[in-house]
Amino acid sequence: MTERTLIKDLAAASDGAISVSGWVDTIRDQKKVQFVVLRDESGATQLVHPKNFAEDGTPLADELADTISALTVGTFLTATGELKHDERVKLGGVEIKLDGLAVVSEAAVSPIAEDSSGDKRMDWRFLDLRVPKNSLVFKVQTTFLHALRTYWVERDFIEIHTPKLMASASESKAELFEVDYFERKAYLAQSPQFFKQMAQPAGFGKIFEVGPAFRADPSFTSRHATEFTSVDTEFSWIDSHEDVMKVHEELLVAGFQAIKDKHGDEIKALYDVDVVVPTVPFPRVPLAEAKRIVAERGYEVPRADDDMDPEGERQIAAWALETYGHEFVFLTDYASSIRPFYHMRHEGDAALTNSYDLIFNGVEISTGAQREHRIDVLIEQAKEKGLEPEELDFYLDFFRYGVPPHGGFGMGLSRVLMLLLKMPNIREATYLFRGPTRLLP
Ligand code: AMO
Fold it and tell me: How many Å apart are CA 132 and CA 405, to the nearest integer?
């Protein structure tokens, strides 16, 4: 492996011989001196080369100067030289006076610039991601998932990986991708719903999964992708969806605290966003009540028994921020008519479910619920939704051989990150976005 010092560690390194590797960010080729800003995954630093002149000012042979003059932006190289601390140097207070430059891979002129359209930037995502502002979200994502994992592992949750090739739908049939599977059809998993629930009769107690989910949703909104990473958890022996919300908030507090500690300053500098670690409990509002609040603010959510729409979500989030100073709000007790058959309904009021959506900065990031675990009730609810019990038999079997009460949630990873960094579009928070018209790169 090439011996290299990460650029972020230069400030703490001693003056003297040093080697760094990275790509050329900018070049200033002046009459007497040349400057190259070199970038790696951790930062940027200035390389300097005073050109060779005779005492009378005539230029002397200078191979290094010629190499620098021929450099192109984006070229990957290894630089060796003398590190010198100098507080006048704006970029990190250090500079490397070059001894040598080994060009490793020359770059052609970049097809994108800062003002390129979003679509063009996505066409050239690997170049787009060289910009620190555009790659920061993936460092933040790593920290977030690490904190979530730590929470789960410390509490004995078991990690599972459910199959992404399925024999049936697990969410709305309208959003199903069909694939040829030998002599039959298979479907891409829309969520790990059925198989994360299976871990409960399997006796796992508490599980989590972070994995891909697919939705054949033809819409071009700023919050939808056809493939996204779903963060799921499911656990036994709950009394109601309240127990699920408690775990949900604790996970988010752990995740946001870790992000603030590690990236708060960089997020402020690059996105002008203050990471707020949420306080618990998050505000909870039954959906019917939320609709009344939103109506009082002058917005009528269309169709009385329907879901909250995007404007309604924005309005209720604005209300939660004004009323509680909170960026999150749980909308609870959704009507059974708009929830899947597997949601448990209220004891004594079958019109409502033990379920919730979590809104963050005005957009839904999660759905959670207590599941119906009583087989007879579950079959009734499936039939009521027009589902054929035979089609679901493999799932219904999970409830025929003993199963504890349980619940959980699914959360869209890119949505959380997009809303945290106040990015305009989910594709900015996705490594490689997939939408109705995007399958490349
Ligand atoms: P739901 O369908 O609400 O619930 O999905 C859960 C969360 O996944 C994210 N999400 C999406 N993100 C990007 N693009 C999409 N097309 C997309 N669709 C969904 C959202 C959403 O809140 N099985 C249940 C969860 C559960 O009850 O455990 C489910 O999938 O952030």
Answer: 46
